[in-house]
């Protein structure tokens, strides 16, 4: 029997029909009404943390796309050199601070954006909430259960709102998966398999940076996997209740055959497959290399340095309150970048994949993939390829949807997330795109529980970590 190709959603027809549907369904979202109703013609925005993520996504992009709605009233960072560079790069004329408390005391703001080292997120989130300021924080919300509880407590006592910048759940591909799951086409979910692959360019880069240190990133189970865990929580529509995990450091760090101070000053550049020449990236040279003298941070640090203490391979089993079970893995030195997603339901199966070279008709340059994901200048461009989504009901043939390919701007999610935060525009409120403190907590609690499980060799209950009680239905 021949496979059924769902011609109702071809690439050409999708652009026409979905564009019209989205326009018709756009409504003003109540999720961020506190921000929308702030005083003044423009929202007064301050940012703490002026690394590449803050400067690009929360800085330059925000000014270019939402300059009619926001104005920067303060930038803060411990590195004064990066501050001055960031001010020029973002294109703003506002006060800069190396002392966050001083900025908080002297600058009137409607919104604080937190884009610092992960382990410090809680400090700025809590101080902002304590002053009843709205806060947007980059993932992960925090890195351990005590900090998580402190943030939960601060939110309960604040008139401000904590917004989690979970842009993955806004991604167009993932939104389509959510719609299919919620339609019950495959019946009630029973299990999910998610395998995420970071290639030898993107994956390796985490180990060059501060992310390779547990006391700064909480491990990649927090820094990277928080994206994936939130995506799972959102798609499943329930809270996690128990986690068991395995993990190890077997490739990077002390496992390396040699090591140096950093790539620019290393004698092993001809022998090291991971050698990275930062001098070819002028932006990084100006932001990081030129300002090492202020805090000693090396952007091109050695990924074989012995101080690295995070995992480079991880597998996690998650049980949910609604009895859905998840198997998840994260690989940090794959030859290709991508993922495999599979959802098993009582009436069928849904799956998709991205980046598997032998499945793609037009394989991409592995060195450029992450750069493309972060690029917000081309999120509206149409690609000459598609995401393949396959559903198959029990006792029936499979259906294949050729879903329009969007990779830039986190699968198109960045713009949709910021549209909701700053313009109050929601594509479909029933999909629950906006993420709050509970969403941020549940995502990091899976990572915290997984790390604890690996360290201690035991399953960990989510309810033992904070006072949040897992719900069968997240939105009940």
From TrEMBL:
Domain called Gfo/Idh/MocA-like oxidoreductase N-terminal: residue spans: 44-164
Lineage of the organism: Bacteria, Pseudomonadati, Bacteroidota, Flavobacteriia, Flavobacteriales
Residues annotated as transmembrane: none
N-terminal signal peptide: none
Domain (Gfo/Idh/MocA-like oxidoreductase C-terminal): residue spans on this chain: 178-462
Protein name (database record): Gfo/Idh/MocA family oxidoreductase
Species annotation: Gaetbulibacter aquiaggeris
């Amino acid at each position: 029997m021949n496979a059924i190709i769902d011609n109702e959603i071809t690439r050409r027809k999708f652009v026409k029909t979905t564009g019209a549907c989205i326009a018709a369904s756009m409504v003003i979202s109540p999720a961020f009404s506190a921000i929308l109703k702030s005083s003044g013609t423009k929202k007064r925005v301050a940012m703490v943390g002026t690394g590449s993520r803050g400067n690009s996504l929360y800085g330059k992009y925000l000014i270019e796309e939402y300059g009619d709605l926001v104005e920067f009233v303060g930038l803060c960072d411990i590195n004064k050199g990066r501050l001055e560079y960031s001010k020029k790069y973002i294109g703003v004329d506002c006060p800069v601070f190396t002392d966050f408390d001083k900025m908080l005391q002297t600058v009137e703001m409607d919104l604080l954006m937190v884009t610092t080292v992960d382990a410090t997120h809680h400090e700025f989130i809590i101080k902002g909430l304590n002053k009843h300021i709205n806060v947007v924080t980059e993932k992960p919300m925090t890195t351990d259960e005590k900090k998580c509880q402190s943030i939960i407590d601060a939110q309960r006592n604040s008139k401000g709102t904590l917004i989690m910048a979970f842009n993955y759940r806004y991604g167009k591909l993932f939104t389509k998966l959510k719609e299919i799951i919620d339609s019950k086409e495959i019946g009630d979910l029973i299990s999910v398999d998610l395998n995420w692959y970071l290639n030898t360019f993107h994956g390796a880069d985490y180990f060059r940076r501060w992310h390779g240190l547990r006391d700064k990133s909480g491990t990649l189970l927090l820094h990277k996997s928080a994206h994936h865990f939130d995506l799972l929580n959102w798609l499943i529509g329930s809270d996690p209740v128990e986690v068991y995990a395995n993990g190890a450091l077997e490739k990077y760090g002390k496992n390396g055959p040699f090591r140096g101070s950093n790539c620019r000053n290393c004698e092993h550049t001809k022998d090291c497959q991971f050698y990275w020449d930062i001098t070819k990236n002028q932006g990084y040279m100006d932001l990081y290399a030129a300002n090492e003298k202020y805090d000693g941070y090396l952007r091109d640090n050695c990924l074989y340095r012995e101080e690295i203490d995070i995992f480079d391979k991880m597998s996690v089993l998650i049980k949910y309150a609604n009895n859905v079970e998840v198997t998840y893995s994260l690989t940090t030195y794959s030859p290709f970048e991508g993922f495999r997603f599979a959802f098993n339901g009582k009436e069928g199966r849904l799956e998709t994949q991205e980046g598997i070279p032998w499945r793609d008709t037009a394989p991409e340059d592995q060195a450029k993939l992450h750069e493309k994901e972060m690029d917000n200048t081309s999120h509206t461009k149409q690609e000459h390829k598609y995401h393949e989504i396959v559903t198959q009901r029990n006792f029936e043939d499979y259906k294949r949807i050729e879903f329009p390919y969007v990779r830039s701007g986190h699968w198109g999610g960045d713009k949709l997330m910021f549209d909701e935060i700053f313009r109050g525009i929601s594509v479909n409120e029933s999909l629950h795109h906006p993420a709050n403190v509970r969403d941020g907590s549940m995502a990091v609690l899976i990572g915290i529980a997984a790390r604890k499980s690996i360290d201690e060799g035991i399953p960990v209950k989510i309810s033992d970590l904070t006072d949040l009680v897992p719900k069968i239905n997240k939105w009940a």
